[in-house]
Automatic annotation (TrEMBL):
Boundaries of every Fe2OG dioxygenase domain copy: 61-159
Name of this chain's protein: 2OG-Fe(II) oxygenase
Family matches, as Pfam families: 2OG-FeII_Oxy_4
Domain of life, per lineage: Bacteria
Matching Gene3D superfamilies: q2cbj1_9rhob like domain (2.60.120.620)
Matches recorded under PANTHER family: HISTONE ACETYLTRANSFERASE COMPLEX, PROLYL 3-HYDROXYLASE OGFOD1
């Protein structure tokens, strides 16, 4: 991590993790990478309809997606996912981490009005976290003790056109 990233994480929004932009690649015509099957699944009528019903948000139109990998030292500071013009209605995280300990960090944490951690989700395998935008959350620092990577496919369920 650079000094600039560290300075930014002290005061504002910063993230450090590896990512593979499935949605952007799909939009540019890429069809070969095996993870793109997950992007297609997320945009299937079955999944979108499931998401509309669970969230109570009938205007969900499509899902964008990225694959992410967190290693020791990686994190994502507090934010609420709301970006003007993107029409993000809900956020999802599909966890694909087979083995993890809570004390390794990498926890998806929801922050309440008093600044407390209201809920925390430990990385798991084949588990979906789904929540409405905007809500304050972060991914806690992955400690040097983590012997595995934290893998997920994550993104937003959006209204409007692609
Ligand atoms: O990976 C996670 O658990 C959450 C990711 C996230 O909040 C984001 O990408 O905005
Ligand atoms: Fe987020």
């Amino acid at each position: 991590m650079t000094q600039k990233m560290l300075e930014q994480s002290r005061r504002g929004f910063q993230y450090v993790f590896e990512n593979y932009p499935l949605y952007d690649l799909y939009q540019s015509g890429e069809r070969v990478h095996p993870l793109l099957a997950m992007h297609e699944f997320l945009n299937s009528e079955e999944f979108l309809q499931f998401a509309r019903e669970v969230t109570g948000l009938p205007s969900i139109a499509f899902a964008d997606s990225q694959a992410t990998k967190y290693l020791p030292g990686h994190f994502l500071t507090e934010h609420d996912d709301n970006v003007a013009g993107k029409q993000r209605l809900a956020a999802y995280v599909f966890g694909f981490t087979p083995e993890w300990r809570a004390d390794w960090g990498g926890i998806l944490q929801f922050i309440d009005r008093d600044g407390h951690v209201a809920e925390g989700y430990v990385p798991k395998f084949n588990v979906l976290n789904l929540f409405r935008v905007p809500q304050k959350h972060n991914v806690s620092y992955v400690t040097p003790a983590a012997t595995q990577a934290r893998y997920s496919i994550t993104g937003w369920l959006r209204a409007g056109d692609h």
